[in-house]
Amino acid sequence: MIFQKAHHLKGEVTVPGDKSISHRAVMFGSLAEGTTEVLNFLQGADCLSTIECFRKMGILIENTPERILIHGKGLHGLQKPDGILDAGNSGTTTRLISGILAGQPFETTLTGDSSIRKRPMRRIMEPLSMMGADITSLSNNDCAPLRIKGAPLHGIHYHSKVASAQVKSAILLAGLYADDITKVTEPVVSRDHTEIMLGYFGAQVHTEGTTASICPEPALHGQKVCVPGDISSAAYFIAAGLLVPGAEILIRNVGINPTRDGILKVAQAMGGDITLLNVRRDGEPTADLLVKHSALHGITIEGEIIPTLIDELPIINVMAACAEGTTIIRDAAELKVKESDRIDVMVNSLGAMGCDITGTKDGMIIHGGRPLHGAVIDSHLDHRIAMSFAVAALTADGDTKILGSDAVTISYPNFYTDLSRLMH
Ligand code: S3P
Hints:
By secondary structure, this protein is an alpha/beta fold.
């Protein structure tokens, strides 16, 4: 697809449901007794992969445009799937389901697309094995396909080296099937949707500082879940609204959980004019975001804030490229093991558009303020790279051609339509 400079960007947009929360609603609804109703479910390819995995394990899931209904069978109601489970492009599906499969009385093989088959799984294989599960990487490279033989599990206290909600959640979900309390301590707190939603379904989950713990064998009950708009999807409109001269965008119903809202803090610290309207709390906190064009300046982004904006770093790079002065990003080595190596891809592709950007071992240094020009950008089939460059193109002279632009179907199928509506 080809993108050009925007001369007008105004109006309202409602971004689709949160990806992390949508995955969890399907998973926990499947493990609960009774029916779970999910409103504003993200109909993106990743969450559809999660639905298919649970259908293969015998769970009836009705998916309509208005809502999804999950007819859960309780903690011990999953059946051995007929064939391999396919997580597609989804790290969340792969890692969280692994935690659930670790506690099942059957053996499963779990795989995904070529990106998933390169992503590190040792981080979940190690703690789940310590709990008693038998997990093998069938290619012997600590990546999927994984063969998981469930077993009676033991409660452990695991100290994770990475701040990862996927690792934490895999362990907590295995902890549902353990013989004792299970605890996970992270170096820095990662997103806490699992803790919030499992508690809502009836589990005993406690958080103290960077440690989350769960009691085994709860009775989970089906619930109604209203999924807030995904702040990670809103991030592209936040950036576009700040960068395009004269822009003003109202983004409705965005989740602003404090473990996810780093993009708002960083955008405001860079000088961005963002007002939170209509703040409300119903399970997860939400707000409408009013974003106005602003002159941005560079900042340093490091430490505890990193997990709260890890998926937004590609679009934050674009903001930094257009900001005056230097932006330094540290403590973000996790970027290398996302859907693509997001340090390499951002350095090469923003560089190709004229940005002064250098990669480091755990982030990047961007000297902003140089005018960007169009280029041919390969998304590497990474949805967040495709959307970041669609926004970069709005500020660049000439044509920007994005190869693999369809990757947006992973988390935001209507992204280009919603963006172009604001331009007319
Ligand atoms: C996610 C956690 C994060 C994030 C991913 C979704 C989740 O991954 O990058 O897009 O839903 O738990 P890590 O746990 O690997 O940091």
